Inverse folding.
C-alpha cells in the first residue's frame, strides 16, 4: 500500500470517527503537540484544546465531509464541508472550507488548517455576534457559562447544545 493511500485511509477513518463523535478515537489520531486551525475562527494547540472543539461538535450534532482529497508526501489536501445545528440556527445549511490541509507525522495528524469560504463565515459571525449580545441581556447566567469575559465562545458539548437552544429561541423572538 502506498503512503498516499495510507494517508487517505487515515483521513477517511478520521471523518468516520468525527461523524460518530467518537472523541477518544479522534484524539488518538492527533500528535500530542498538534495544531488545529479554522482560519479566522479558532486556533488550538495540543490535544486538550483540540478535544474541546470535537466535544463541542458532538453538542451541536456536527457532521463533516472531506472531499476531493489528494495526498502528497506527508500532507493531505481536501475541501471540508461542515454541517451542524449551530450553523442551521444561523440560517446556514453548511459551511464550506475550500482549503483543508492535514499534515501527518508517524501517521498522526500534526497540523490541521482549514480556510472557510469568507461570505458564509462572515454571515455566521454576524449572526452569532447578535445572538451573543441577546444572550448577555436575556440570559446572563448562561452567558457567563458559555462565553469568556472577553466574549469568546467556550467550546464544549454542553455549551454547544445550549447555544443552539438559545439561538433558536432568539430566532423565534425576532420572527414575531
Amino acid at each position: 500500500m502506498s503512503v498516499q493511500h495510507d494517508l487517505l485511509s487515515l483521513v477517511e477513518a478520521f471523518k468516520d470517527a468525527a461523524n460518530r463523535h467518537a472523541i477518544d478515537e479522534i484524539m488518538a489520531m492527533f500528535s500530542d503537540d498538534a495544531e488545529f486551525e479554522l482560519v479566522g475562527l479558532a486556533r488550538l494547540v495540543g490535544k486538550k484544546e483540540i478535544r474541546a472543539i470535537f466535544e463541542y461538535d458532538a453538542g451541536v450534532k456536527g457532521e463533516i465531509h472531506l472531499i476531493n482529497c489528494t495526498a502528497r508526501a506527508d500532507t493531505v489536501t481536501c475541501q471540508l464541508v461542515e454541517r451542524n445545528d449551530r450553523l442551521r440556527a444561523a440560517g446556514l445549511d453548511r459551511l464550506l472550507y475550500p482549503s483543508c490541509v492535514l499534515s501527518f507525522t508517524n501517521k498522526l495528524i500534526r497540523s490541521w488548517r482549514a480556510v472557510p469560504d469568507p461570505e458564509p463565515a462572515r454571515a455566521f459571525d454576524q449572526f452569532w455576534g447578535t445572538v451573543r449580545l441577546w444572550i448577555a441581556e436575556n440570559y446572563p447566567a448562561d452567558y457567563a457559562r458559555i462565553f469568556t469575559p472577553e466574549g469568546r465562545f467556550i467550546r464544549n458539548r454542553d455549551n454547544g447544545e445550549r447555544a443552539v437552544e438559545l439561538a433558536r429561541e432568539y430566532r423565534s423572538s425576532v420572527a414575531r
About this structure: The chain has a mean pLDDT of 94.
